[in-house]
Amino acid sequence: MFLDNDTGLNIILPDKRLRPPKVLYLLHGYKQYHGSWLDQSSVARYAEGKNLAIIMPDGGRSFYTDMALTKENYYSYITKELPRFLKAQLALDPTREDTAIAGLSMGGYGALKIGMRNPARFSLIGAFSPACDIVKIADDNPELARSILGDEKAEGSENDLYRLAQELALSENDKPKIYHYCGSEDFMISENRDYRDYLEYLHLDYEYHEEPGEHVWPLWDKWAEDFINKFTK
Length: 233
Hints:
Strand content: 15-25%
Largest sheet: 7 strands, mixed
Number of strands: 7
Radius of gyration: 17 Å
Strand order of the largest sheet: 1-3-2-4-5-6-7
Distance between the termini: 36 Å
């Protein structure tokens, strides 16, 4: 048990399985919970008729890390325990090409981190207004950084998206395609544009989409529909 406590989980399953369904892990943001996507968006409707299972785990305020202070291992839970549960209980055991991960804000960070650290498992990553600069977040929020990282420095760690992108670019293995979305009035637009520039410099399989808007659900809902359509086409 990587969490050693009860946790929440929402799952959308296709009405009929004509073939093994595709699986999308969909991660929530900071100060949200596993029900936020169902409460605030239309992802259930977007999944209709697409032979798609959407897995929405709870990530607390962990930034999808194995937390140093509380020992709640959210990263290991999502990457190890949850897939085993889905296979055993729901017969969900998708191929790499049929597995994607996406999320908003903190969940966008989590999707990038999990997807880039596990390229053999995910063919597609969706990042909606992601928190791209964990170093800046740690510097600005020392108490949060201590709870997540302990004494470990964020820069250059396995939680640093810049390091992970560089390692992915240098790898000779299959690489996931990355779809990155952000609103031009988002309070994190500067770090999103900086990360865009870095990923483009690395020549990863990457698309960036920017449009007017802030850090808000109407945009995340729209981008989730677009990402689901891309994944299931």
